[in-house]
Amino acid sequence: MLVNLIGLLAIAFVVFWFWPRKGASKATPGNSEATIVVDGGVYEPERPVRPAGQPITLTFLRKDASACAQWVLFDGVDASTELPIGKPHTLTLPPLAPGEYVFHCQMNMYRGTLVVK
Q: Boundaries of each EfeO-type cupredoxin-like domain copy (predicted)?
């Protein structure tokens, strides 16, 4: 009985920890900048929306001291950067075609998607 209870609590913790926090940020016409906070095992916002066809500037603010939060890597864009703790760090991406671009930590535990429209 106790083992079952511990198992259920562990499952609830995992679901809570990795459950998406909020929806996508809104794209502002002409605004290609976004600030993404890295804290508590998530990127916030986890689905920033930016306009296509212009360079995109992302400012990451890492509040989480875990080693997993140290790097952010973008799939399909050939971009990555190391994130210092407690200091804003800017990454500029080239103009991107409309689509979704996944970004994550080096261990794939923190995950987000840059939506380009």
A: 11-116
Q: What is the mean pLDDT of residues 89-101?
A: 96
For residue 40, name the pLDDT band (cuts at 50, 70, 90). Answer: very high
Task: Tell the residue number behind the tokens 């995992």, with chain if given.
Answer: 14
Q: How far apart are CA 102 and CA 117, in angstroms?
A: 14
Sign of the Cα pseudo-torsion (70, 66, 8, 18, in order): negative
Distance CA(107)–CA(22), nearest Å, equals 22
The b-or-e profile of 33-53 (16+ CB within 10 A means b, else e) is: ebebbbeebbbbbbebbbbee
pLDDT of residue 7: 76
Placement of tokens 């679901």 in the chain: 15
8 pLDDT tier (thresholds 50, 70, 90):
confident
Flag whether 10 is in a domain.
no
- Asked if residue 29 belongs to a domain, the reply is yes
Query: The CATH number of the domain where 80 resides is what?
Result: 2.60.40.420
